[in-house]
Every structure is written in C-alpha cells, then in structure tokens.
Amino acid sequence: MAIASGTKKNFFAAHYELVVVAVGALALAGGIVAAVMSGENTDAIEGNTPSVSPIAESGVEPASMNGFSLITLMTTQPNLLDATTTAARLGSEARVHCALCAAPIPVGVKVCTFCKGEQPEDKPKEVVEEKTDKDEDGILDSWEVQYGLNPDDAGDAAVDTDGDLYTNLEEFTAGTDPSDPASHPEYIDSLWLKPPFKETTLAFYLNTAMAIPSGYRLEFRDAKGRTARVLKGEEISMPVVDAKGKSKLVPTGFKLADYELREVVRDIKVTSTQTKQVVEKKCFAKVQRVSDGKEIELEVGDRKLKPVDIQATLVFRRLQDKEYVVIPGETIDLNGEKWLVKSIKTEAGKDIVFMTAVDSDKKKLLKPLE
Fold first, then answer.
1. 129-188 pLDDT, tens per residue?
2. Separation of alpha carbons 159 and 283, rounded Å
3. Cβ atoms within 10 Å, residue 122
4. What global pTM score does this model have?
5. DSSP string spanning 74-107?
C-alpha cells in the first residue's frame, strides 16, 4: 500500500530523534566491526612477519576507536549523563508543530527553538454538560437529581414542591430553586390586564337643599328612590330593608364635605320663538370619599349619576386564576407581596395599568391578557 508523502514527512518530523539515534547506532556498530577486524589482522602480522605499517601496505588509515571508547565509558560510568540527557537520547518526547514555522517542538515549550517565536497558550477545554431528559418532562435529569426530583417521573414537572405557586417546570425554566419558597419568578409577571375598562359611577345624586337656621340640610337620592338627609360633615348612608323587613342605614362610603350657593344664568323659554335669561341661585355640594378623600361635585337637581373611577379587572395567572376588580389607589395581595394600583388610564387607544410595589421600588406596567 502506498503511503502519502505528507504522512511520511509528518512521521519523520515527529520522530526525527529516533531516526538520528538509529542512524548513529548503525554507524557506531560499523565502526566497531571495522575496529575488530583491524585488530585481527594486526595479531596475524605480529606472529612471524616483520612489522609493516597498515597505511604503508594498503594506504587506508585504521578506524577510529573513539566511538567504542565512548560506549565503554558510558557503560562503566553511567553517572556521566544525567537523567534528562539519558531520556532524551533513548527516546523521542511528544512534540507539536510550531504555530509560526511549523517545525516540530516539544509539547509545552513557550518559545520555538527554531524560529524563536512565542507559542499561544493552550486554552482549557470547556466542560460540556450532558443534557439528557429521560422522562421527557422538559427538565434536565441533572437538575432533577440536584433538587431531589425523579428523572424517571414526568409527573413531577407539574408539581409545586415548595408551595410558592410555581411548578417545578416553571422554576427550572426561570432558573429558581424549586425547594425554596422564597426563590421563584416575580409574582407581578403573572398579573395581567383583562380589558375593557369600566367606569364606576356615584350611586346617588343631589336632590334638594333645604334651608335651616344653621344653614342647609341636603337630601341625596339613589336610583331606587331611597333618600339620605345630611348636614355638612356627616356621612351619607341609605336606608336598606333586610330579609326580615327591618330597615338599617348602610354607608355609601361618601360624606358631605361642603356646599355653597352660586348664581347661575339660565335660559327660559317665553314663547315658541323667544327666550330670556334669568339669574338664580343654586346649591352645589362636594361629596368626599372616606377611603381616599376623592371629591366629586354635584349640582342640585342634576339627576345624572357622576363618574367616579375607571375600573380595571386584573387576572393573577398562577396554579388557579384569580381576578381582582380594582380602581386607582387600591392595594392587592399577590401571595404575600402587596402592590398598589397607581393609575388606570387609556393612552393612544391602549389601556394601561401602572402598578408599584408597597415594600420596594419595583414598578410594573401591566399588559393585556394573552
């Protein structure tokens, strides 16, 4: 079988020391043989024949005994060579090609002995993690073993091991600890906006203002015709009849904060074609929400229910969906984390709910439910 010339070159480049030693050994052996043969001829001549110089007889100079002497000296006095030199002479060390001139150089040297060029440092090989998932539950076996799960049971992917409302698969995906209830993805990231917004309205209107010695008593009426007569500073409560037929006052959550009389101009129809303007005094009341102090102005006789808040529905999508119907200023609890509904509004045709954490500086702009 023919061997490619490139293969031959690579072989000799990597083992040139062995080749040199072998050739040298052959040359040395040849010298020794020649020396021995030369000695035998000398003994024969020394028997009865007059001494004749080998050079004069044959014209050939005798072989040098230096090589034989060196072998004898190395055999009888091995300490003349150190261990490193001996090892280098007896076999070739592992070699690589120089990064610059491609000459064979020992492994690990920093500077090439031929071109004197510096060699690049060997980078450690990256450890590649074995990515196996025997039960095909979406979680690597190594991760399951690390956290005490069963790599042969696909059912444990849907289990919430630490009770933080996140499954083992969700915690694997998020890179959190499934055995630590404090380690989990952000709860606020599971809160979504469910459009559309709804507008809440006041449950009553200002019906009349009755003059009394101390000022005015105002009467408020709801859509069912129930009335509440209050003085300034009093809470507005409506009478409600329970199942047993007993009446009790139920607070509306608002109180009469203030009122005032204003002059207003009104157009009055005199004939079918004529009108005239008249000036009259009307009562205006400010009702205040007890929970947050929000004020709404009412005009006596205006029966249209006034808007109060924009209302949003939020969905907490965890193991079981939970809905919150909220208005600005309300606080919701997400499994122990409290979040404040900062604002609810529509901008450029998009519904927006802005949330802030009560106990930290976290903020979140909620997106519509997907």
1. 668 999 999 999 999 999 999 999 999 999 999 999 999 999 999 999 999 999 999 999
2. 63
3. 9
4. 0.53
5. HHH-GGGS-HHHHHHHHSPPPEEE-TTT--EEET
